[in-house]
Amino acid sequence: MAPTDRFVAETTFHVRYAETDAMGVVHHASYIIYFEEGRSSYARQRGSDYASFERGGRYLTVTEVGARYIQPARYDDQITVRCWLEEMKSRSLTFNYEIVDTASGAIRVTGFSKHICITHDGQVVKIPDDWRAWANT
Question: Is 8 exposed, middle or buried (0-12, 13-18, 19+ CB in 10 A)?
C-alpha cells in the first residue's frame, strides 16, 4: 500500500495495445516503462521536471529495478501509477511504485527503482538541494 506519511504522485492512463502481448495482457517489460512515467510525474508534481534536471548537467541513472507482478492488466484497462520517494541519500535515491486498476483499486504490480546521480561525464555527484528537499516534505 502507498504510504500516507509522504507525498505520493499519481498518474492515470489507459493501457495501449502496443504494450500488450498476443493475449492482450500487459507485457512484463511495460511495467518498467510505467515506473518511469510515475517518476516523471512525481518530479513534475514536485515542481522540478526531469528534463530540467538533465539540462542542469545531471542524470539519475538506474542501478536496480524490481517488480512484483500480482494481477495482470489488459489492453484498454485504465490504470493509475502511484510513485513515492522511499529513500534519499546524498548521491542516490529509491522510488517505490504501485500500479492499480483505477476502477477497482486492485493492485496489479508493485516495485522499486534505485538511482545514482551522475554528471554527463559519468562522475557520481550529490543530488541537488531542491531535489533533496523532497525527502523532508
Answer: middle
